[in-house]
Amino acid sequence: VYVPLRSHISRILVNGWRQEDLEIHFKMQELRKRPQSFFQIKKQHESRSNWESVSKILSMGVAISTLPCEKLQAIVDAAKEISRLYEEEQSSMIDEVNGDGKKKQIASLSADDFLPIFIFCVVRSDLERPCALCVLLRTLCDPSKRIGETGYYLASFEAAISHIGEIDLSSGDQYHRSPLL
After folding, report:
1. In angstroms, what CA-CA distances link 89 with 78, 83, 100, 107?
2. Model's pTM, two decimal places?
3. Which of 6, 140, 143, 163 holds its CA 20 to 30 A away from the CA of 48?
């Protein structure tokens, strides 16, 4: 049903969310210049790779995919990549520090640690129409996909877009939300 109607749906979404998408896109361009610490990513959770693989999954998976369910899967894959990359980088840092070859337990990221990283990755992914994408996914994805793990990552993506919209760029190096939004 979606494919034959895709051009009409896209036109409606693009026109309906044009102003919001322009504002978010502008903020994302400005925020791309900021370091991980600006997004309140804890020093011990910062990535040596700047979470590049996550941003690439988001930008490529969402942009290339046609179907909403494929776009949603790209968001889920990107979120899972955060955990995978975090564990990989933490493991290599522990090996560098200890050098004893013994495996150390790596603590998982909490939801409070995950969201700032995810926001950072969304900013760096350079999505063209993130607000329209949120509406598309919320409206056209199977309701059963909006619960459980997939629903959590969709809600995290929507929260990331909303949060980016609330960031006050005039505040310099501090991480502030605009009181007007």
Report:
1. 16, 10, 17, 12
2. 0.84
3. 163
- Residues 159 and 165: their CA atoms lie apart, in Å, by 10
pLDDT digits (tens, 9 = 90+) for 95-151: 555 555 565 667 789 999 999 999 999 999 989 899 999 999 998 878 887 789 999
Give CA–CA dist 27/21, Å, rounded.
Answer: 10
Here the tokens at position 94 are 């522990």
Say how far apart CA 34 and CA 173 lie, in whole Å.
8
- N- to C-terminal Cα distance for the chain? 36
Rounding to the nearest 10 degrees, give the CA dihedral for residues 79, 117, 159, 122.
Answer: -70
Which H/E stretch holds residue 165?
helix 148-166
Residue spans of alpha helices (H) in 17-147: 18-31, 52-64, 68-98, 111-125, 130-140
